[in-house]
Amino acid sequence: MTDTTLTLGEVEALAFSTLQGAGAAAHQAAAVARSTRLAERDGIRSHGLMYVPIYAEHLRCGKVLGAAVPTVARPRPAAVQVDAAHGFAHAAIDAGWAQFDAAVREQGVAAMAVSRSYNCGVLGHHAERLAEAGLVGLCFTNAPASMAPIGGTKPVIGTNPFALAVPDGAGHARLVIDQSASAIAKSEIILRARKGELIKPGWALDADGQPTEDAEAALAGSMLPAGGKKGFGMGLMVEIFAAALSGGNLGLEASPFSGPKGGPPGTGQFFVGIDPAAFSGDGFHAAILRLTGAITAQDGARLPGARRAANRLRIEREGVQLDAALMNRIKTA
């Protein structure tokens, strides 16, 4: 088998058919396939087709329930709750989105909590979805424990990313901040372990709490927080929003996102939407233009999310390069 080039439409179709073949209902498979397409479009390979065999494995072993039907409740005017029922997070988020959007526009600010959930793909895409609708989006998702506290060796929280997206007033995001509490996303270490490559210094510790550049040893040990104690503090903040507030499992209680061991992870997400018109009105967009302009006016400086935007233009034109080994893993998933 040789390497091949896929269009983004073919990426989405391949993901959809593979997930359906592994037992996902159409509404579950479609939401994840769209997320896979967006990840590949933005050059975020670790969350794209590389993850499809893992999703398929988890469908088959019961870590994700492919027939799950999310349920949505709105206990208060500005609060939306979604029970993912141990299906994919993507489908649960879609299920609650209309009520979430309506709540933000009615109240000026609202939140949506998702419980009994799973990996939600690229968190920034959910924040960007809010920005494209003219709203400020702030999103949190927790993950199985993989990061020890400063001075400790036993992981207690996950890589726990947060994302912030800001609208540009013209139907797009002006900037997207999407970062994990760890020095690097765990998926990047998984990718290097699969390829037999070393990781960079400062990414992880081994099981004995010693610095390591061995990807397999890192997966058996602990991720290092970005910025030391500040990164760990950020991870704790995400854990509070995404797990404690949503009703999802703490990272300590969640089964791994990789491998077949354990039942459904049951992690959570928490999204906050803010309508700028309810607060600073047109002054918001003017302030954002001044702020971002002060960044882009400097030679060599770029806004958060600019690299992804550049990848989109190139990949939409050139397509997605898929190596033969990954295609084989997808076809046999």
Automatic annotation (TrEMBL):
<dbReference type="InterPro" id="IPR043144">
    <property type="entry name" value="Mal/L-sulf/L-lact_DH-like_ah"/>
</dbReference>
<dbReference type="Pfam" id="PF02615">
    <property type="entry name" value="Ldh_2"/>
</dbReference>
<dbReference type="InterPro" id="IPR043143">
    <property type="entry name" value="Mal/L-sulf/L-lact_DH-like_NADP"/>
</dbReference>
<keyword id="KW-0560">Oxidoreductase</keyword>
<protein>
    <submittedName>
        <fullName>(2R)-3-sulfolactate dehydrogenase (NADP+)</fullName>
    </submittedName>
</protein>
<comment type="similarity">
    <text>Belongs to the LDH2/MDH2 oxidoreductase family.</text>
</comment>
<dbReference type="InterPro" id="IPR003767">
    <property type="entry name" value="Malate/L-lactate_DH-like"/>
</dbReference>
<dbReference type="GO" id="GO:0016491">
    <property type="term" value="F:oxidoreductase activity"/>
</dbReference>
<dbReference type="InterPro" id="IPR036111">
    <property type="entry name" value="Mal/L-sulfo/L-lacto_DH-like_sf"/>
</dbReference>
